[in-house]
Every structure is written in C-alpha cells, then in structure tokens.
Amino acid sequence: MYVVGSIPSLGSWNTADAIPLSSASYPYWGRLVIAPKSTSFAYKYVKKDSSGNVTWESGANRAYSTGSGAGYSISDTWH
After folding, report:
1. pTM, 2 dp
2. What is the pLDDT of residues 5-20, one digit of tens each?
3. Comparing C-alpha atoms, which of 6, 13, 73, 75 is closest to residue 46?
4. pLDDT of amino acid 72
5. Which distant-in-sequence residues (6+ apart) come within 8 Å of 15 by Cβ?
6. What b/e string do you get for 26-48 counting C-beta neighbours within 10 Å, with b at 16 or more?
7. Rg (Cα) of the chain, in Å, rounded?
8. What is the C-alpha separation between 30 and 3, in angstroms, rounded?
9. How far, in Å, CA of 79 to CA of 67, rounded?
C-alpha cells in the first residue's frame, strides 16, 4: 500500500515515487510524511504488485489542508 499526491513529499503524482505505508499495525497502515505548514494538497492510495503494476483506489482525489501548527493525522478507508 502506498500514498501519492500533488506535493513533492507525496511523489508529485509519480507512482514510482509513491510513499510506502507500513503494515506494522495491520489492519491499519501508516507512515509519517512531512508536509509544509499551511498547504493544501490532493492525494490517493495505490497498490503495487510484485511486477510493478499499479492499482489506484477508485473515486475522486482526496484533499487535505495543513494548518500553521504541527502534527496532523489523517485516517482514511480504501475506496
């Protein structure tokens, strides 16, 4: 499971640069990602198989905006 999005820290929509998520707390997947303060961005989750084929989650892009503080958490469900 990976996350990719519209800002450089999320790979700038390039699935080759998508951020791998950890399954250490399965069934929850997670990863610390540094996003700039006061920034709006779009993102989606993708799956990659052993051959490198990418499956995008369905539906519209997700959106998030960081505030001026630090330490945000996003909780989503795969579409």
Report:
1. 0.88
2. 999 999 999 999 999 9
3. 13
4. 81
5. 2, 4, 46, 48, 54
6. eeebeeeeebeeeeebebbbeee
7. 12
8. 10
9. 26
Cα–Cα distance measured from residue 79 to residue 77, given in angstroms and rounded to the nearest whole number: 6
Q: Provide the H-helix boundaries in 1-79.
A: none
* Token output for 19: 């951020």
Residues with Cβ within 8 Å of residue 44, at least 6 apart in sequence: 3, 4, 5, 56, 57, 61, 62
Nearest Cα to 5, choosing from 77, 37, 15? 15
Joined tokens for residue 23: 């399954």
